[in-house]
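We now fix the convention by which a protein and its fold are recorded. The integers have meaning only within a learned vocabulary of local backbone shapes. A complete example follows; check for yourself that the lines match position by position.
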Amino acid sequence: MPKGYMKVCALKMENRVLHWIIAHVLRPKFGSFARVGNLEVDLMYLLKNGTKVDWHHFIIDRMFEIKNGGKTPALSFCSMIGAILDNFGIVANDVVVTPRFL
């Protein structure tokens, strides 16, 4: 096992469920779900202790990580962005996207 990782089987059941949500929904990853990385442990700690998470920074940071050649191309923020738009009453069907060429 690489340094900085732990196995999911070492977690209690509630932490396994939280890890599953993080690894599949909040910070999707490509590859083995049997390992828990440092970033996932940090996010689990923040969520379990009720600490506010700067979700704007979290999402943008993940997008830049993928844009700049991150080794994990998984990106499933469509549902998260959709929920944010629904929360503020923005209808995405009415949005007209025009490409800009610089």
Observations:
- The beta strands are 6-7, 35-36.
- Residues 6-90 form one domain.
- The chain has a mean pLDDT of 75.
